[in-house]
């Protein structure tokens, strides 16, 4: 803490240091590293595109007794911490592919913390207990009006963050109900619609006006919105599926993945026969295949026919498949056939134009392409015919900006800077109309754009907080923490799933298991009150904080008596204490 002036003279394994004025009577003594509290960025938050304070909401539940909180109080605090960045905890706890868990330091010990499972449990707890979103402290009603185009996860998140600041926000949605791809792209067995409805309602309760079945470019012009509102956030997503560009593609019996899922999730009748092939390896492909299986199985006449099947063709191997691993596993468990290293080259039709088969090309992997994955290369002369009745293509998607009929926005993809500013005066953007991604990325982009819009309207510059260095497992004392097996989510059996095809498949964690999972958090880079510094310090440098608060359980009280033994630093399991 600036008290030492070190001389690079090594002696007895320590650096010789001299006290600069005070504390030690002016003499010299051997000293080494002195304690300093440095909060570091945990890798879970560092790898969360939404920027969620994951450590914050896990540890407030974990440390509730030390903080003098009841379980209900801790859960409500944890929920509000989550809501600072993500207004959809129950939704994201079901559909997020959780890159936070891949980065979790606990993965180096006995398995990463089940962050996504706790998030879902926390979101469900909030819905069960009717917890509300809060306005931002110090913010009051504002005169400025803001338009949000698109009621998907990005548009609604931007509306949420702006409404919390007191802005009047109107969300325009072209579809009959809000949710975007959450509602019209993700099947009901993965994401029950009452969950979407409840979390959207919590945003609406902040004063957000929601106008569904209102198409910009048809019902309202983009020019009129620019005239009537002080800022616009465009988040229309990417609902248009792309064609494959192969012979026989034009005609009946072929759907894009987004079109098929939209129809199925809207409750419309979808006739797909009994033999379906899905092209692609992403989440849309897996969802389309599993919904197809349920439609076939849900129709008695079709289910009784021999040879009913759903096949996914993917031109690479399982290792390169971008879909969520758990979803792939569950599709296989439901008897969906996945043919790897296979690509369609032609659709064959009968005399009446109906699809009868597909010509499939066998592939092999070559050198990596721009995506970093190995490029699929056709094996010359190795093709076969696959009998089918319906083709669902889930190879890619794009936004339909042309429908908005704005020369300023164009008809391709929207570009935005790190704050989502498009370069068009008063217009920001985020979500899949920038680039295809996952919902948590769209939510994170919306929050940054909301901060930028607020700053612009208040005549300020947006301020991005530097999170500081990320703490890795080598800076932790992994052996200090007890081994605790990772708890597993309860999932219905394949037989139960297909017997009740549109009931939720993943049942999440029990309340007890969710609490266990909270205790597994290392609290990387932030004090959790283990008492090691206080117990190991013979000089009584440390004192307890009374009353404690999250991350603040001990303080450095008498630095002048520190003899630099380094014990506090060496014995701090979470890496919160460093020496200097």
Features:
580 residues; FAD/NAD(P)-binding domain; five-stranded parallel sheet; disordered N terminus
Question: What's the arrangement of secondary structure elements?
Answer:
Elements: E1 4-11, E2 14-19, E3 28-30, E4 35-37, H1 43-46, H2 54-62, H3 71-83, H4 89-95, H5 99-103, H6 115-128, E5 145-149, H7 153-163, E6 168-172, H8 181-184, H9 193-204, E7 209-211, H10 222-228, E8 231-234, E9 240-241, E10 254-256, H11 257-265, E11 275-279, H12 283-298, H13 300-303, E12 309-314, H14 325-333, E13 337-340, E14 342-349, E15 355-368, E16 374-387, E17 390-393, E18 397-398, E19 427-429, H15 439-457, E20 490-491, H16 494-499, E21 506-508, H17 511-519, H18 532-536, E22 542-549, E23 552-556, H19 567-571, E24 577-579
Parallel strand pairs: 5-6, 5-8, 6-7, 8-19, 10-17, 11-12, 11-17, 12-13
Antiparallel strand pairs: 1-2, 2-3, 4-24, 9-18, 14-15, 15-16, 20-21, 22-23
Helix pairs in contact: 2-3, 3-6, 4-6, 6-17, 7-15, 11-12
């Amino acid at each position: 803490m600036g008290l030492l002036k070190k001389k690079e003279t090594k002696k007895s394994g320590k650096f010789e240091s001299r006290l600069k004025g005070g504390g030690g009577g002016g003499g010299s003594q051997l000293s080494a590293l002195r304690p300093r509290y440095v909060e570091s960025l945990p890798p879970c938050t560092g790898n969360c595109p939404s920027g969620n304070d994951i450590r914050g909401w896990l540890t407030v539940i974990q440390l509730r007794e030390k903080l003098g909180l009841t379980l209900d109080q801790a859960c409500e605090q944890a929920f509000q911490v989550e809501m600072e960045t993500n207004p959809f905890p129950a939704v994201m706890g079901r559909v997020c592919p959780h890159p936070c868990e891949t980065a979790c330091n606990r993965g180096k010990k006995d398995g990463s913390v089940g962050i996504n499972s706790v998030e879902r449990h926390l979101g469900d707890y909030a819905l069960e207990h009717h917890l509300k979103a809060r306005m931002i402290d110090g913010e009051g009603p504002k005169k400025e009006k803001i338009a949000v185009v698109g009621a998907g996860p990005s548009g609604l998140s931007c509306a949420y963050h702006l409404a919390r600041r007191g802005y009047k926000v109107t969300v325009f949605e072209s579809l009959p109900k809000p949710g975007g791809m959450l509602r019209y792209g993700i099947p009901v067995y993965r994401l029950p619609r009452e969950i979407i409805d409840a979390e959207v309602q919590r945003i609406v309760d902040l004063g957000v006006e929601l106008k569904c079945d209102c198409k910009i470019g048809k019902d309202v012009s983009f020019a009129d919105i620019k005239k009537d509102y002080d800022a616009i956030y465009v988040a229309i997503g990417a609902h248009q599926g792309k064609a494959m560009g192969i012979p026989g593609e034009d005609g009946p019996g072929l759907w894009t993945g987004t079109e098929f899922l939209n129809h199925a999730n809207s409750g419309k009748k979808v006739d797909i026969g009994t033999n379906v092939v899905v092209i692609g390896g992403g989440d849309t492909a897996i969802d389309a295949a599993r919904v197809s299986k349920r439609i076939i199985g849900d129709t008695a006449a079709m289910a009784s026919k021999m040879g009913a099947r759903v096949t996914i063709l993917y031109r690479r191997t399982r290792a390169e498949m971008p879909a969520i691993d758990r979803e792939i596993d569950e599709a296989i468990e439901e008897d969906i056939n996945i043919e790897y290293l296979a690509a369609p080259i032609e659709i064959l039709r009968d005399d009446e134009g109906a699809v009868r088969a597909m010509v499939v090309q066998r592939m092999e992997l070559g050198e990596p392409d721009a995506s970093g994955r190995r490029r699929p290369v056709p094996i010359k002369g190795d093709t076969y015919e696959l009998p089918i009745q319906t083709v669902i293509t889930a190879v890619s998607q794009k936004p339909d900006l042309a429908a908005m009929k704005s020369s300023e926005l164009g008809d391709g993809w929207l570009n935005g800077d790190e704050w989502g500013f498009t370069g068009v005066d008063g217009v920001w953007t985020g979500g899949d109309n920038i680039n295809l991604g996952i919902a948590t990325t769209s939510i994170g982009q919306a929050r940054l754009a909301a901060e930028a819009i607020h700053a612009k309207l208040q005549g300020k510059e947006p301020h991005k907080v530097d999170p500081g260095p990320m703490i890795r497992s080598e800076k932790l004392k992994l052996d200090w923490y007890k081994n605790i097996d990772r708890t597993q989510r309860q999932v219905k059996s394949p037989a139960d799933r297909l017997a009740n095809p549109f009931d939720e498949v993943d049942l999440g964690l029990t309340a007890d298991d969710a609490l266990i999972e909270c205790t597994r958090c290392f609290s990387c880079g932030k004090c959790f009150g283990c008492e090691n510094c206080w117990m190991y310090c013979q000089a009584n440098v440390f004192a307890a904080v009374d009353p404690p608060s999250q991350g603040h359980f001990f303080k450095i009280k008498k630095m002048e008596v520190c003899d630099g033994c380094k014990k506090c630093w060496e014995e701090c399991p979470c890496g919160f204490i460093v020496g200097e």
